[in-house]
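Why CDP-diglyceride synthetase? Reviewers of the renewal asked for a concrete example.
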Amino acid sequence: MIRKIMGVVAGVVVAMAVTMGSQAGIHLLYPPPPGDYMDPAVQAAAMAQAPAISLVLVAVGYGLAALIGGLVACMIARRRGWPSWIIGGLLVLGTVMNIIMLPHPIWFGPLAIGLIALGSWLGGRATRAN
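Here is what the prediction returned.
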């Protein structure tokens, strides 16, 4: 039981690191406009100015986070499938919260959630069942 819990915890940590790393890289490629990002109006304006490719890359980063985090969770837990789906579920929850807090294009939510689901499925399938 401890191995399963630790697998999920490690998977969450890895998924968060992948998400933060991918977003840091995206901000290097497509720097956000200057401003006080504690102000919701500045956040909304920055999202409106963001190039579509940068948002596609964010969604791809979420999918990679689900894949790598799910893979780590399954490897440590020594189980296929469900540890990866827990990581994916938490990523979907974070994505939905992000979409609620910041205005995104209508296509972003389905794309991000679809890529998270694909990454979770692949992460759960890529490990051997022990």
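The chain is about 80% helix and 0% strand. This is the kind of structural detail the renewal will allow us to pursue systematically.
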